[in-house]
Amino acid sequence: MCIILAAYDCHPDYFLVVAANRDEFYARPSAPAGFWEDYTDLLAGRDLERSGTWLGITKRGRFAALTNYRDPASYKAGARSRGLLVREYLCFPGHPEVFLEALDGVREEYNGFNLLLLDGKSMWYYSSRTGRTDRLGPGVYGLSNHLLDTPWPKVVRGKEEFQRILGGRGEVTAERLFELLSDREPARDEELPRTGVSLEWERLLSPIFIGSETYGTRASTVLLAERHGRVRFYERSFTAGGRRTGKDAFYEFYLDRAGRC
């Protein structure tokens, strides 16, 4: 996942709104979003190489999303898959802070990552880079491959448009959020971060939507969780060059009483 925009407890109709793009090599096999046969409460896409996921929600109202922290100099071969963290949290019965306290003790087993977690009542952010756990207040947040709300051009532009959609007079619709997620405008060279990859790669990775022939946005996800408990989950899948696969997914359900926002 390369960009996550999240509005938490700050809209009159929605407890949570998420617009997110997952970026990955096209050669890595994955399954589109669906309820998992082995975890029937869990709705998410699935990485078929390591069995984890990048973003998901359960019928009890637990939500989790992950981004990698981009720093090739600290890459560890053979590290545990970061996508397993999302799966493990969504199946975890306890409080997010308890999960993160345990995770902090083993964070060196993974390459760098960021996590956003929700248990239906509170939202949390954790970065393996800092080892810090933050409980988030109501607001709009942007996360890419650095720390939360780091002002990379894609995060700044994405948050601005996200807030316009949320605060405008029109209805907050999946289509408007997918339009935001389809923005392929690259950043100017002078705005690019310096994360240890080549200038060519910094340019390639700078848009909200990435569409090269080998690496790019594989899935765009929109999540609308209403205050009265209805959840709508939309996913669009893409292949090389940013072409839609036609394997779109849509799920609608009401949260179980215990997890209702």
- What share of residues are in beta strands? 25-35%
Average pLDDT figure = 95
What's the shape? globular
* Fourth-tier CATH superfamily name: Penicillin V Acylase, Chain A
Report the sheet with the most strands, covering strand number, pairing sense and barrel closure.
7 strands, antiparallel
Total count of domains: 1
What's the oligomerization state? single chain
The ordered H/E elements are EEEEEEHHEEEEHHHEEEE
By CATH reckoning, the class would read Alpha Beta
Rounded to the nearest angstrom, the distance between the terminal CA atoms is: 25 Å
Number of E-state strands: 14
Structure classification: alpha+beta
CATH topology: Penicillin V Acylase, Chain A
Unreliable stretches, pLDDT < 50, 5 or more residues?
none
The total count of helices amounts to 5
Helical coverage, percent range:
10-25%
Q: Top keywords for this entry?
A:
261 residues; alpha+beta; Penicillin V Acylase, Chain A; 7-stranded antiparallel sheet; 35% strand; globular
Structure description:
- There is one protein chain.
- Strand 3 and strand 4 (42-47) form a beta hairpin.
- It is built from 5 helices and 14 strands.
- Helix 3 (153-167) runs antiparallel to helix 4.
- It has 261 residues and is α+β, with helices and mostly antiparallel strands.
